[in-house]
Write a structure and sequence with these properties.
Elements (H helix, E strand, L loop, with lengths): L7 H4 L4 H12 L6 H14 L2 H10 L1 H9 L8 H18 L8 H20 L9 H17 L4 H11 L3 H12 L31 H23 L3 H12 L6 H8 L3 H20 L1
Helix pairs in contact: 3-4, 5-6, 5-7, 6-7, 8-10, 9-10, 11-14, 12-14, 13-14
Length: 286
């Protein structure tokens, strides 16, 4: 469904002054009766009548405002929450089936809240506090509990974990995330020299080399590997296997293990190893 179905001044409230006017205007739109809602829904589903979908969206904009007001405690603009909720409402209208015996307002609440939740999680903090479905559910439930209880006790942590089907450690981690604050990497604007605030840029220094040194080290490693494999190519198959087994693999073999493999003495393996290393050294330095 296109956003063009709904007038832009009803879909996107802008600014504090116009927000009150927006709310007053959407509250003037008549609520649909059960028969009207079913008739419009069938006309849209069966005939693709966009005007029917538009009327269903308009009639429920007041409900989006009602839901959005429940999320004003996150420090985000009410107008932005309403805008995101309106998108969820349009998604709900597109999927609504009147034959299931459920009113659109009951069906749409899931889609409206889902869009608002995504918006809150994207904008509440610079650093994301919840990425998985379980973390999102925990974020909203735990924040609601903390506003009432403050820091959770041991029993409350286990109760929340049991109710939401997660481990207590996950609840404690999310509680820690909720209690933390974003810190600017650089100095905030208008900070004078006497301020006690020390920005992370002043003490989070990188110990790694500069780009030129990193490139030189990488280039040298690549060059050394090329010489090593060129030297291995100069050896016969048995000598190559001895060098790989003794020097180039994680589980290095002993002289005796290689001696048992080739049915010779350990001293013979040592001699073959020394000869192979000598050949490789000559090939590399040539």
């Amino acid at each position: 469904m296109s956003k063009d179905l709904v007038p832009s001044h009803l879909l996107v409230p802008a600014g504090t002054g116009s927000l009150d006017s927006y709310i007053q205007e959407v509250n003037k739109i008549p609520v649909l009766t059960l028969e009207e809602e079913r008739d419009l829904a069938r006309r849209y589903r069966e005939d693709g009548e966009l005007e029917a979908a538009r009327r269903m969206v308009l009639a429920h904009l007041r409900f989006v405002v009602h839901v959005a007001k429940g999320y004003t405690g996150y420090g985000l603009a009410l107008g932005d929450l309403i805008q995101e909720g309106n998108i969820g409402l349009m998604k709900a209208v597109k999927r609504f089936d009147p034959d299931h015996g459920v009113r659109l307002v009951s069906f749409a609440v899931h889609w409206i809240r889902a869009e608002m939740h995504e918006f809150i999680l994207r904008n509440w903090r610079i650093v994301k506090v919840a990425t998985t479905k379980a973390q999102r559910k925990l974020f909203f439930n735990l924040r609601k509990s903390k506003k009432r209880l403050g820091w959770l006790s041991h029993d409350e942590v286990h109760a929340v974990a049991r109710d939401l089907g997660v481990k207590p450690e996950v609840v404690l981690e999310m509680e820690s995330r909720l209690s933390g604050q974003d810190v600017g990497f650089d100095l905030p604007p208008n900070t004078d020299d006497d301020s006690p605030y020390i920005a992370p840029v002043a003490y989070l220094e990188s110990d790694s080399g500069d780009p030129q040194s990193d490139f030189e080290a990488e280039d040298w490693t690549k060059h050394s590997n090329n010489l090593l494999y060129a030297g291995l190519d100069e050896l016969d198959e048995r000598s190559r296997d001895i060098i790989r087994s003794r020097w180039l693999q994680d589980d290095k073999l002993t002289l005796q293990e290689l001696a048992d493999r080739y049915e010779v003495s350990a001293e013979r393996i040592r001699q073959l190893e020394a000869n192979a290393l000598r050949k490789m050294r000559a090939s590399i330095t040539a």
